[in-house]
Design a protein that fits this description.
By secondary structure, this protein is an alpha/beta fold. The protein has 2 domains: 174 residues, Rossmann fold, CATH 3.40.50; 192 residues, Rossmann fold (3-Layer(aba) Sandwich). It contains 13 helices and 21 strands. Strands 12-11-8-13-16-17-19-20 form an 8-stranded mixed sheet, sandwiched between helices. The protein has a 5-stranded parallel sheet with strand order 2-1-3-4-5, sandwiched between helices. It is globular, with a radius of gyration of 25 Å. The relative contact order is 0.10. The structure holds flavin mononucleotide. Flavin mononucleotide (FMN) binds next to helix 5.
Length: 413
């Protein structure tokens, strides 16, 4: 076995396991991107049923989707190899979510008017599942009064409109009209499917990443935190119906359906978190907040002087987590340690007012900064330790939310 392959397999709970997503693909130049969307949905554990319009088939072949999803593609109401030729609303009834990506100006008009002359529009009319529509078209088509009106109608009908994004369009123009990124679409699917989950109606604040304390205008002191753990917690909470605010010092793609507040320094984090924590339900401080900061910040770049080095005084940073208060707020702290894991975590819980501390030994294989997995121990305010197995970071996020849920319920009662 090569040394870089971990012998330990993390437990993983695919976020869309067992969910049926009906993916409608229409005749936009962006139709080829729908293959990536189908692939990512399959990787997230979903059963993907693809419906293609006749125009979509001019852009991509059905075999691409059939090979990715291992299921037949439906393209006509009278299509002999589709179950819709026997029961035209079969997919509508089985769908947990209908995603139309890309959506042409034409399909927006048909959906807004309630036309049902093809399998996709008939499925839209018949389904009770949440619907996400991702328009993709030339900027002029998007700006036309009809398209603007149709998008407004669909929004009023409860459809989630994803994008479109800005950038270079197939026409060569720069403008609005690009299909939003695959990660945004899969994130939205996860959000709408989880909208009635056990965190519905709750506000979860998660901090992520390593703060950067300036030395001068070009340099800073920071740490190795990448933000992956905090982002995974934010996504897990979103997938369970929470309203999520992610206060981040990391530079990772914005997760769909999560409010992101960028906070580079400890002061930024404190200013972003304290005012909103009083009304929040859960605060998970996964960010690696600097313990020390340069005592003096130079407003000019510090220049090299001769052959000697420089020394810098570091001042202690005041921990603001004890100041986060709220009538119903439950707080969860993190402790990244290299030694005496449980003892260090025990010492942290009470001064921070945390219900429990998520402690991880960053020297364990598969744990800590930059990895996709983590092995943590929950240490509660009375010092009881609950070691967890090595898991994907998303599953660690779910385990934290599972552990916090009864505490939230207790606070509220
Ligand atoms: C090369 C080409 C590219 C097209 N790209 C788009 C597009 O990106 N967005 C769009 O709304 N329509 C686009 N159209 C027009 C649609 O294909 C056309 O309106 C078609 O009737 C849509 O059918 P459908 O909505 O049933 O898939 C394009 C047409 C051609 C020929």
């Amino acid at each position: 076995m090569s040394p870089e392959i971990s012998p330990i397999q993390p437990i993983s709970r695919p976020p869309l396991e067992g969910k049926t997503i009906v993916l409608g693909v229409t005749g936009s130049i962006a139709a080829y991107k729908a293959a990536d969307v189908a692939s990512k949905l399959i990787q997230a554990g979903a059963i993907v049923e693809v419906i293609m319009t006749t125009s979509a088939m001019e852009f991509v072949g059905r075999s691409t989707f059939e090979a990715l999803t291992h299921r037949p593609v439906t393209s006509g109401l009278w299509d002999a190899h589709s179950e819709l030729s026997i029961d035209h609303v079969a997919l509508a009834l089985r769908a947990d979510c209908l995603l139309v990506a890309p959506a042409t100006a034409n399909i927006l008009a048909k959906l807004a008017l309630g036309i049902a002359d093809d399998p996709l529009t008939a499925t839209y009319l018949a389904t009770d599942a949440p619907v996400i529509v991702a328009p993709a078209m030339d900027a002029d088509m998007l700006d036309s009064p009809s398209t603007v009106r149709n998008i407004t109608t669909l929004k009023n009908d409860g459809v989630t409109i994803a994008g479109p994004a800005e950038g270079r369009l197939a026409s060569g123009l720069i403008g609005k009209g690009r299909l939003v990124k695959t990660d945004m679409l899969t994130g939205l699917v996860r959000q709408v499917i989880g909208r009635n989950g056990d965190y519905a109606g709750r506000h979860v604040i998660v901090s992520a990443g390593g703060t950067k304390q300036p030395i001068d205008p070009v340099r800073y002191i920071s740490n190795r935190s990448t933000g992956k753990m905090g982002y995974a917690i934010a996504e897990a909470a979103r997938d369970r119906g929470a309203k999520v605010t992610l206060v981040t010092a990391a530079n990772m793609p914005v997760p769909a359906g999560v409010k992101v507040v960028n906070a580079s320094t400890v002061d930024d984090m404190r200013d972003a978190i304290l005012p909103i924590s009083s009304d929040a339900d859960l605060l998970v401080m996964a960010a690696a907040i600097s313990d020390f900061t340069p005592a003096q910040v130079s407003d000019r770049k510090i220049k090299k002087q001769g052959s000697g080095g420089i020394s810098m005084e570091l001042a202690k940073v005041e921990d603001f987590m004890p100041l986060a208060h709220g009538r119903k707020l439950v707080k969860v702290a993190f402790a990244a340690e290299t030694n005496d894991l449980e003892a260090n975590a025990r010492a942290k819980a009470s001064p921070k007012g945390a219900a429990f501390v998520v402690a991880n030994n960053i020297s364990d294989p598969g744990s800590g900064f930059g990895t996709d997995t983590n092995k943590v121990t929950f240490v509660d305010s009375r010092g009881k330790a609950e070691p967890q197995p090595l898991m994907a970071k998303l599953d660690v996020g779910h385990a934290i939310l599972d552990r916090a849920l009864p505490l939230l319920a207790k606070r509220q009662s």
